[in-house]
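Anyone opening a protein record will find just a pair of labelled lines. A complete record is shown below as an example:
=====
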Amino acid sequence: MIYRFSLLILYNKTKLTMNTATITKVLKRVESASNEYSLGFRRLIALPARTKQSFDLAANLETKFDGQKALNNQKAFLESLTEKEFTNWLMIS
């Protein structure tokens, strides 16, 4: 998990961090998503496009481009974060 997180930061250094309005929108999208899906998947689909692209790249590099494994790792990572950790992660992504 730490390796994936480090890769995400590495690929996001060139873009600005998220502002509070964008973070609030992401959190509201997570809340409004159907509870039929796991928390990790709801957080994943709520991410802005640029953040999701960087996160996808980091996950794919970690799994050597095994798409299903990368998706499962992303969902597991996002689900393991507490609300505060998720908010902090959004701030730096």
In short: The chain has one domain: 2-92. The chain has six helices and no strands.
